[in-house]
Design a protein that fits this description.
The complex is a heterodimer. Chain A has 10 helices and 8 strands. Chain A is of the alpha/beta class. The chains are: A alpha/beta, B mainly beta.
Chain lengths: ~300, ~450
């Protein structure tokens, strides 16, 4: 009786666990920017899930168990890396029981390894400097030049994992890159007069945007990364905003806006809230997202 | 932390494209001074044949090679054309990732150290605090100093350990290996670990909303909670929602870990009947983006020393409901945790039973501030007839016990925490006990990953 039961159970497990041959490549992206790019490159050959919402601070995502379920079925995990997901991904990754997407596995792609990172510390760092990322700044997808490198890396990996559809991945990667190149020329032209303008950011999450567009981030509303503002720092930021004639205070929508609005009001700067990521659930493309971001920036910067 | 050392396969080929993608940035005239360093992008680019992109380890069919070359050519052309079109000159990027990550590569395990200190005041000396890491006496207390180490052993296993120091000595809280790639979504753990009974038992004090342990855990399992040497197998079922089934077998002894089972006595293990066996089911329901519900059922079964063949069983159910708005900006977190334990132990000529529970409401109302309230209840022990009986483990526990606690927590950052907690313990068999704690927690080292 016992052996019969075991046999039935094992059969059930095998049947339920094996994926059908016609299944799409399952891609799980930690953040919506990577998910958006993967969906554009993967087209109908992939099914993409993102772990963080576009309205959510990617540093603080709840390790909800159903995310481990998505990871357990994944053929490819795309993570931003550089410590962005360190507070929530490791537990889920271990709990996923999926050897393919563990670090070093064929389905594990740390996207920070695809792009040159900014703010890589060259001297010793510790947390007295705030919740810093010792491997460099992970908010790189605001720079379309780096997104080109991301697309190349992701497209290449998709082709490796699903060689039957390799030509499709490469064709879509090619058209993505072409469209991005054209759009970038447009964005750069639109914002060319903004070069050298000074902005204030909430968190140190805009260095890549600033680097790309030649903007200068003169101060942050957070005194140190991850540390909420205090009155004396706000006074300091206000003074910087006035003396440096800052035009815009920019922040992602997932950061609190009260303090920033106050600083903007008192200094005469424009308060600009940008979506932190492409709206993945509404199937917004990366280019559409950046079109919107560039338009908002141009308007706020008065160019 | 060590992820960066795994560059994708064929990264030389990648670098070719990366180089092509970024080269226009370097070739363009710069109207504005470039703020970042101008270190070259990875070198292998110049030495790789252009047709190498992307070259997977398996030999690619010829048509794919053609595709690759086409992408390559398209990029190169775009690169040239955009160099003349783009008015803005992006500054050259920082050193390439391969170079930047070299500095943080290490085979050392992730290491962190967490200290919990408390200043405590009790209205009476013989209070009923039952947690090993609870503040225990008036004045200053070291609750725990926990050293955590963890790393992958090899591609098949990872190893985690939590070693707790207090002024009296060292305790191996946990030290276990976890499999990473068993088939059929199975996972095994082996070593010394906290049993996954209910919600709180398997967690560490620094993740708790209060500075002491609910008395239910101390009453049923012991001061340290249920843990021991053993092995565990868990299965993530292929059902459409999250259902995880857990089974474990561990040593049933220990007055601070398995007091309802073999307690302080030892017994030669002759078979599974002499071990503490656990079965648990854990379910999770993402009700919406903002609302989540976790529900668990657990049962622990093992021998007790009251007579030959006498056994104990503990059944538990835990519910965790969480509201955290992530569809809009908000610091708000609201959660409700409730856990119930029903215990029955065979003793000579009777069965001793009791029910213990705690219910917690937690509210983070600002980025750095949270408040919490907890209500605990434990029934008097009762026999098969329902009449009160004497519990040989807690002979003074002759009536029901309730305790209420309130806590206010301040988080200067993710790595430190200060908490004020006040509680009133109301055992019906004696006068109520007031307790006040002021606790501090400091964490250094690797950023620990939080479980849900």
């Amino acid at each position: 009786m016992f052996h019969k039961l075991t046999l039935i159970l094992v059969t059930l497990v095998v049947l339920l666990s094996s994926a059908p041959a016609w299944a799409k490549l399952e891609v799980v992206a930690t953040t919506p920017d990577l998910g958006t790019i993967a969906r554009e490159l993967g087209g109908n050959d992939v099914h993409v899930t993102t772990m963080a919402l576009s309205t959510q601070d990617p540093h603080f995502v709840d390790a909800k168990p159903h995310l481990a379920l998505a990871l357990s079925k994944a053929n490819l995990l795309l993570l931003t890396g550089a410590g962005l997901e360190v507070g929530w991904l490791p537990t889920l990754l271990t709990g996923s029981r999926n050897p393919d997407i563990q670090a070093g596995g064929p389905g594990y792609l740390d996207c920070s390894s695809l792009v040159p990172l900014l703010q890589v510390p060259t001297t010793a760092v510790d947390r007295s400097q705030g919740d810093i990322h010792p491997q460099g700044n992970p908010h790189f997808s605001y720079d379309p030049r780096r997104v080109e490198a991301l697309a190349v890396g992701i497209g290449k990996r998709l082709g490796e994992l699903d060689s039957a559809h390799k030509s499709g991945y490469f064709a879509r990667t090619k058209s993505f890159l072409e469209a991005l190149r054209a759009a970038r020329a447009r964005w750069e032209a639109r914002l060319s007069k903004a070069r050298g303008q000074k902005i204030i950011a909430y968190h140190d999450s805009l260095p890549y945007l600033a680097d790309w567009l030649g903007l200068e981030v003169v101060e942050h509303v957070e005194p140190k990364p991850g540390i909420p503002p205090n009155p004396s720092h706000i006074a300091h930021v206000l003074e910087v905003a006035r003396t440096a004639k800052v035009r815009v205070l920019v922040q992602q929508a997932y950061y609190p806006s009260g303090t920033s609005k106050l600083i903007a009001d008192k200094s005469g700067a424009t308060f600009l809230q940008i979506p932190g990521y492409p709206d993945f659930t509404q199937a917004q493309t990366y280019t559409a997202y950046m079109d919107d971001l560039v338009a908002k920036l141009a308007k706020a910067l008065g160019v | 932390m060590k992820n960066l050392r795994f560059l994708p396969r064929g990264s030389t080929a990648l670098v070719v494209l990366l180089h092509a993608a970024i080269s226009n940035a370097q070739n363009e005239p710069a109207p504005a001074p470039a703020p970042s360093s101008s270190a070259p992008v990875a070198e292998p680019a110049s030495t790789s044949p252009p047709a190498a992109y992307p070259s997977p380890s398996s030999s690619p069919p010829a048509e794919n090679q053609a595709d690759l070359s086409e992408i390559q050519a398209a990029l190169a052309a775009d690169s040239r054309s955009s160099a003349t079109q783009a008015p803005a000159a992006p500054s050259s990027p920082a050193p390439a990732a391969s170079a930047s990550s070299a500095g943080v590569q290490s085979l050392n395990p992730d290491l962190s150290f967490i200290a919990d200190f408390a200043a405590a005041a009790f209205s009476t000396e013989d209070h009923l605090q039952s947690g090993a890491h609870d503040p225990r006496r008036n004045g200053f207390n070291l609750q725990a100093l926990e050293l955590s180490l963890g790393a992958s052993v090899d591609p098949y296993l990872r190893f985690d350990s939590h070693i707790t120091f207090d002024l009296g000595g060292v305790d191996v809280e946990e030290a276990y290996g976890t499999t990473l790639g068993l088939p059929f979504r199975l996972q095994a753990r082996l070593g010394q670990f906290l049993n996954r009974f209910g919600r709180l038992n398997a967690s560490h004090p620094h993740t708790w909303n209060f500075s002491d342990q609910p008395f239910a855990l101390g009453r049923v399992f012991g001061a340290e909670g249920n843990k021991g040497l053993g092995t565990e197998l868990s299965w993530l079922t292929p059902l459409p929602w999250y259902v995880e089934l857990v089974g474990s077998a561990m040593m049933a002894e220990g007055d601070e870990t398995s007091r309802s089972f073999l307690n302080g006595s030892e017994r030669r293990v002759r078979g599974p009947q002499d071990l503490l066996l656990l079965a648990a089911a854990k379910q999770f329901f993402p009700l919406s983006d903002d609302w989540s519900l976790a529900w668990g059922l657990s049962g622990a079964f093992g021998p007790n020393p009251s007579g030959p063949g006498n056994r104990s069983a503990v059944y538990g159910s835990d519910v965790y409901l969480k509201y955290r708005p992530i569809t809009s900006q908000s610091p708000l977190v609201l959660s409700l945790t409730s856990e119930w334990f029903y215990r029955r132990r065979q003793v000579p000529e009777d069965v001793v039973q009791d029910v213990s529970s705690y219910t917690e409401l937690f509210l983070r109302f600002a980025q750095r501030w949270a408040a919490a309230a907890r209500y605990e209840h434990g029934t008097a022990p009762f026999g098969t007839s329902g009449a009160r009986v004497v519990d040989p483990l807690d002979p003074e526990w002759t009536a029901s016990r309730q305790r209420v606690a309130l806590a206010l927590t301040h988080y200067p950052s993710e790595f430190s925490r200060f908490r004020l907690q006040v509680s009133r313990d109301m055992p019906a068999w004696r006068t109520p006990i007031w307790a006040g704690f002021l606790t501090a927690e400091l964490a250094i080292g690797a950023h620990g990953a939080h479980s849900f």
